[in-house]
Amino acid sequence: MPIPDYQTLMLPLLEAVKDSNQYKISEVRELLALKFELSPEERRELLPSGTQPVFDNRVAWAKTYLVKAKLLDSPKRAHIQISDRGKKVLSKNPEVIDNSFLKQFPEFIEFTSSNNKEKGNSDTKETIITDLDDDNQTPREKLDNAFIDLTQKLAIELLDYVKDIDPYKFEILVLDLLQAMGYGGNREEAAQVTKKSGDGGIDGIINEDRLGLDKIYVQAKKWEGNVTISAIRDFGGTLLAHSAQKGIFITTSDFPKSAIDYCEKIDRTIILINGKRLTELMIEYNVGISPKKTYVVKVVDSDYFED
Fold it and tell me: What is the mean pLDDT of each run of 10 residues along the chain (307 residues)?
């Protein structure tokens, strides 16, 4: 079954600790995973940021909201225990416990509306609570997905800029990117490399490492429509003529499946980077972009509070 959202997890989580014993949150996660029959692959599925399993994140937020609503107590680090209020809630056999259900408790309202209160905006005190009902993403999932959406839109805009620059500037951009990724030497060395443009179809040669133990041949082409398989074969032939083992073909467009198949079969390594992958790498390594604003997601350092 699909991974349950964090609101769906609230009632099963509370029921899992109804015997009043203290439980490690890791133990509760395992109980819930068994209850929902999650596969090992589902347990390993990560958030878009790749920093935490989706299921672990959702259990953590379900726990947080139940604690804030005073249905759970947290007697010590990474442990939970049902509260008297939690027992009372379960005694009424609720069909579901979700954000709407938790809004009956003033402590939960205080928690979810605290940001608006700090801003002094009385007209929007319920905004966060209303937003919580709109979907079943945890706050961390919303943040991750918003970041992905902004990045995807940036990539589209960035590719338009890249397509507009002249071919020689595009070659410079590609070598700047490879340097930012850790290839080659200093900037002056990269400038010398670009002078090799037009050498038998090679637009650049860059060191694989700072010592120059191996060379990577680069072809950077702005292309309308898919790059032809003949262009990739010609590049492979050029590598053979230079006794080169490694090459990178970068374009602003895309490659046909035949080109991908060809690169998998030959006895040389050719990496194909299309326009989409190019902009992803430019964003990752800050080439052609500049940071506008940085958000740092922080968590409690529980070790700090240990005796």
Answer: 92 96 95 96 89 92 95 92 97 96 95 59 40 70 88 90 90 88 67 47 77 83 89 92 92 94 94 95 93 78 64
| Alpha carbon distance 105, 25 (integer Å) | 23
> Which SS3 state, helix, strand or coil, does residue 207 take?
strand
Q: Which amino acid is at 259?
A: A
Cα angle 225-230-233, degrees, rounded to a multiple of 5: 125
Q: Are 36 and 54 in contact (CB under 8 A)?
A: no
Question: CA separation (Å) from 10 to 6, 58, 62, 302?
Answer: 7, 10, 5, 24
Query: CA nearest 138: which of 11, 5, 46, 43?
Result: 5
Place of tokens 């029959």: 37
